[in-house]
Each structure stands twice: as structure tokens, then as C-alpha cells.
Amino acid sequence: MVVGELERELLRKMPASDACSWDRTGMLVGNPMDTVRGVAVALDPTIHAVEEAHAHGANVLLTHHPVFIDAPDAFMPQAAMGHAPGAVVRRACELGVSVLSFHTALDVSTAGLDALPVLLRLTPLGVLDPLPDAANKGFGRICAPSSEEEPLTLRHLSARCVSVFGTYPRVWGSPDKQLSRIVTSGGSAGSFARMCLDQGIGCLICGEIKYHEALDAALSGLAIIELGHDVSEFPLCALLAAYAAEAGVAESCITMIDQSNNWYTPESSRR
């Protein structure tokens, strides 16, 4: 299999037509005619991720976030321009690593929508902001507690997030608030808080939300659990790895790059 063939198989799962108009989808760096020797999967296409992929014998770096949205205007070494996208592109080219990224095309897919509910044992019901031509795709998975655990409180759900992800989320709302409808959304919440309020949702689980938007929404009755942008999207990396395997890459040739140590809370490391 060559890199271009792998990209085509992945695009069948995550079509570029589903992505936001401003986004970058698919192969951004590399040679589509290179034979795939190995695939490394990461959330972010950093210089370290490129070098780690190469060190593991992988010549494809498959990521959720694209290496750039706006094309770089310079391509210089890290020593000259830090970790700017142009430096990442240059390093990938130096090491012969092709970079493929699937961002909002993965976010809106049914599998992407279900990534958080599956881990948190929530029952999917619908989509908060569906795509115009596909009601089963879009942003924000509307969920309900599983039937055997109703009622579910904010205290219990936020504690479950700690158990599942191993990090401490920021939680807005009364711990004893009972939750009947919940929205999960990885990454930035954007305008979802207002949409949740308009649709009678009791709790929003997201990666991050602007402070004043969270404050206004919480004062209006919406409970919010902020997992951390990266934490909320790490499950999507497992999906990317599974898709690479389904495309024909041997599982022994797929490497997961650990990017879970970008930040921490002192409480989590207290002795």
C-alpha cells in the first residue's frame, strides 16, 4: 500500500466534504507514492511527533489536528522559527514522513460523535447541530444516562470523567443537579452552550469553553464539565488507529504516540 491509497481509504470513512469549509483534511505533507512502512497516530502534529514516528519506523504520521490551517509562509529549522507549522513541515520532509490529518471530518462522523458517550456509558439520542444533508452527523452528541443508572447527578458524572480520563475536569453547576439530557462535544465548545440551553439540555461535556460563555451558561442553568481540549479528543486517536488497520495497515506497524503529558494539575501528582 502506498500513502495515497491509505489516504483514499481514510477519506471513505471521513470525507473531506463533511469537514468545515475552513479546515484541512487528508494529506498535507509528503509523497503519495511512498510505500507505507508504518503509521504513527497522534493528536497533534508536532516536531516531536514527527521525530517519534520516524524513530518507530513509521513514515506516516496520522493526526486529528492538521499541521496547519493557513499555509506557512516560511519553512525553516526549529532553531530558526521554533515550533511553527513551517518548521514541522520542513522536519517531516527531511525525515520522509507524510502527514495525514482528519479534523472536523472525524468530529462530525457518527463514530467520532460516539467516542465520548461510549467511554462515559451514556446512551446516544441525537445530534445537537446536525449537518444540513446528514442528520446522523454533526457537532455535539445528545445523550441520556443509561437506563439502569437514572437518575444521574453532576457529581457522579464528573467523578466518572476523572475515573475514565485520569485528569481533573473543571465543573460548573451544582453537584446534586440531576441530569436527564447531556451533550458531549470534544475540543472547543464554541456556541454549543447557547444551543444546549435553547434545546433544554442539562449538561455539556466539552474540551474547553470561554470563561464568560461558561459563566453565563452556568448562571442560566447549564451544567458544564470541561475535560481539557486534548483530553476530550484523545479517544479520536484510537479511532484513527482502527481506521488505519481497517485500511490494511498491519496492527504491528501502527504506533500510538503518547501526548498526554502536555500539562497537569498539581493535585494529580500530589504525594
Main attributes?
globular; Udp-n-acetylmuramoylalanyl-d-glutamate--2,6- Diaminopimelate Ligase, Chain: A, domain 1; single chain; 24% strand; alpha/beta; six-stranded mixed β-sheet; 271 residues
Main β-sheet description? 6 strands, mixed
What is Rg?
19 Å
Number of strands: 13
CATH domain fold name of the largest domain: Udp-n-acetylmuramoylalanyl-d-glutamate--2,6- Diaminopimelate Ligase, Chain: A, domain 1
What share of residues are in beta strands?
15-25%
How many angstroms does the end-to-end distance come to?
49 Å
H/I helix tally: 10
Structurally, how many domains make up the residues? 2
Per CATH, the architecture of the largest domain is 3-Layer(aba) Sandwich
Shape by Cα distribution: globular
Helical fraction equals: 25-40%
How are helices and strands ordered from N to C?
HEEHEHHEHHEEEHEEEHEHEHE
**Text of the CATH class of the largest domain:** Alpha Beta
Structural class: alpha/beta
The neighbouring-strand order within the major sheet is 5-6-10-11-12-8
User: CATH homologous superfamily of the largest domain - what is it?
Assistant: NIF3 (NGG1p interacting factor 3)-like
Helices, strands, pairings?
Layout: H1 3-13, E1 26-29, E2 39-42, H2 47-55, E3 60-63, H3 78-81, H4 85-95, E4 98-101, H5 104-107, H6 110-119, E5 122-131, E6 134-145, E7 152-153, H7 154-165, E8 170-172, E9 178-179, E10 182-188, H8 192-198, E11 203-208, H9 211-219, E12 223-226, H10 229-246, E13 254-256
Parallel strand pairs: 2-3, 2-13, 3-4, 10-11, 11-12
Antiparallel strand pairs: 1-4, 5-6, 6-10, 7-9, 8-12
